[in-house]
Amino acid sequence: MIIRFLKAGFSKNLVVALSLLVSLEACRSDNPEAQLTRMFVTTNSGSLYCLDLATDSLRWQQVMSDSDIDELTYMAIYKEQLIKDYLDGTIVSFDKTTGHKNWIFKDSVSKDQAFYGYNFDDVRFVHFYQRPSLYQDQMFFANSHGEVKSISIMDRIEKWNYQTGVVLLSEPLIAHNAVYQVTGYQVLKLEAATGKELAKFNLEEGSSFAAKSVNGLLYVQTEKGRVYCLDQELQLKWTYTPDAEEGYVQSELFVTDNSVLLSFDGLCALDSKTGEIQWKVKNLNEIKGLDLLERDQYVILTKDTLLILDKKGKLLREKRWSTDIGQPLALTAANSSIYMLTYEGALYKVSADLDKIKLLKSDLLLNNERGLQAAYFLKE
């Protein structure tokens, strides 16, 4: 195993590694979005908020205060349900309009694991950075005891599980009727319907990040910033190796139709088909968030500044944050507006020209116990 999650607490290396998994809006189309109506926000406390994007008002919230939940996990939309994963292995379905709970599923170690003789006695059973990835009427996720699972959404019955034998730190990717799981030093391809292993690809460096997929290609980033581009059969198309010895990468890849953006050592854009460098921007101070603002514009949130770049990396607009607003934590964009959350739990809406700022909610709950605050946005 790359890293062990101890029942007695976090090892020092694990604290470092997990603090690096900043969730950017990691995979987007270059096409402009249709008008969006609502935005779901979840934080590392497990709290969940639904905002009306037309009125800038709160539709509903589910606030959680549990000291055992202090890592960010994600959610997915299935028909009229918002399905949310939690660190403790609980998955909850909410009515996405009202916030009422439809059902609760509690993950546990499958009986199949005893057959393989894997020993996870010193590893706490949790869901690291998971969202229920959806395929037909199934949801897929991975747990810290090395299991990739398919569960029926309708009746919460296990369809299959795949035993990897290693702690899994990222969610499975569903693409091309297959499940792609990064297991540290490998990428697995499993048949989505049955869990049958179809292919493997070995990584030269360890990865704690989920694979991304756009236009039939997969992208995997290692903890030291190397990027692999693979086809659907896990055959290598290209590899990018950064010049800088970064140590540990701070955030996921951001993938669009034409570009792969790496937000460490500044911001670097690669051609998604060839891996060739399109442009680089240096001297960006700790990137906190990245999204498409318009078809031809990126919005970037750093430790103290909000920037708008065009698709060639040229700076168009820039605004430094006042200390009165708070320290920026996370960012997303919707309907040509920018939404920014601070470490203090304040959610702001910022105009595309960066001239207008509006406080939407001042008290989103974050778990500040270990200083690994994080948030994730989902829009529809």
From TrEMBL:
Pfam families: PQQ_2 (PF13360). Residues 37-185, 187-315 form the Pyrrolo-quinoline quinone repeat domain. The keyword Chaperone does not apply. The keyword Signal applies. Residues 1-28 form the signal peptide. Keywords: Signal. SMART domains: PQQ (SM00564). This is Putative pyrroloquinoline-quinone binding quinoprotein. It comes from Sphingobacterium yanglingense.
